[in-house]
Fold this protein.
Amino acid sequence: MNQSERLRVSILHGAGRENPEIGEVLQNLPYLKLFKQAVDPETFLSQHANKAPDLVLVDLDGLTQVPEWLGELINRLPASEIAVCSKCRDPDFLIRIMKLRVGSFIPLPLQRQDLEEAVARARAALQERPSEPSQIIAVTGSKGGVGTTSLATNLALALNETTPGEVVLADLARPFPQVGQFLDLKAQHTLRDLIQSADSLDAIFLRKVVQQHKSQLGVILSSAELETGFPGVIDPEALSKTLVALRTAYTWIVVDAGCWLDYLFVKLVQEADHILLLTELSVPDLQNLKKIKALFQRWELDDYKIKVVVNRYEKDYTLGLGDLESILGRPVFYTLPSDYHSLIEAINQGVPLAEVAPRSKLWRKIKGLAAELVAQSRPKTGEDKPGILRRFFLKG
Ligand SMILES: Nc1ncnc2c1ncn2[C@@H]1O[C@H](COP(=O)(O)OP(=O)(O)OP(=O)(O)O)[C@@H](O)[C@H]1O
Ligand SMILES: [Mg+2]
């Protein structure tokens, strides 16, 4: 948000009746836009299910107790700054308010200057926030050749269509890193260069050294030393610092992790927000998945971030999704159809799948997978848990 942008402000009249005083003062401030108003928190949250306000003014005029629903409301609007207005000066009341994520307390009757100060604080806080929390997606698989490079490359391109310039694809696949061939790029700087400078990386330096694909996708290719990954060649802590630096520069970091299960792999999957575990529906794949599942448990990976994706899926195989689900004890996250012809054309030409087969089912499904990951990474809004606030509101 820049200084000239009008701040979107919504008012929740938390005492259950509209207080015209606040709206009147707001209308006279040219750099604000009155977005929505409601007299109960449930309606207020549903009004903001798709778009959160920059600033929420919670008017508690007439209340001498902090309502129970206030903490819940604040949690469910994580992208908004919060200001509370009240006449009450009771110390317990004020302490309870300040224990919540409330940026400003505005005394009533409302003074224009107090509101202006609260707005300035909210604007400053919003500017300091990263626009979206960054997400690391590690793409790995049940065996070599299962399709991790095809998926990592085209998934990164699909995400980049949604947020151009905000996505970087890093090649950590061993022993054969192939992102360079898939996108017809030659290494200038490599992941190894970045890892070696891990202590001094910042967003500006990163943007300089990361290669730009013509789509605006950032690409970090691999290097010979990374291919082996012997201990001593690369310090896993340096990989970790590199990932932290990448998070400051990009919203999405897609890593082709291959399935070389060494100490660098462990570090990557520990740091990742999503682990896409690609497999086919065959007995050897399922046997490998059992072993990988045991390893993931030993490495204490958070269960929710492991997402099984079935590649080259067809409904009429003897082994079905149900068999896989019962072995892994989790639902399959996504399936991708088989389309060798389109994919091999793209790989051989060194271009995105979207360029050779924009209407193919495989590309559409990869875009769907990207959309699913984007949706999962959004902060939860008011629609997700209907009823809870009503309960609190009635009680409070
Ligand atoms: N959904 C699919 N339909 C048809 N062919 C596919 C599909 N996914 C991958 N392939 C084919 O499988 C082959 C291997 O793909 P890819 O190189 O992406 O796998 P990989 O797991 O990265 O392999 P490696 O272990 O060598 O790094 C390629 O020829 C690719 O075209
Ligand atoms: Mg590969």
In short: The CA atoms of residues 77 and 221 lie 39 Å apart. The chain has 18 helices and 13 strands. The radius of gyration is 25 Å.
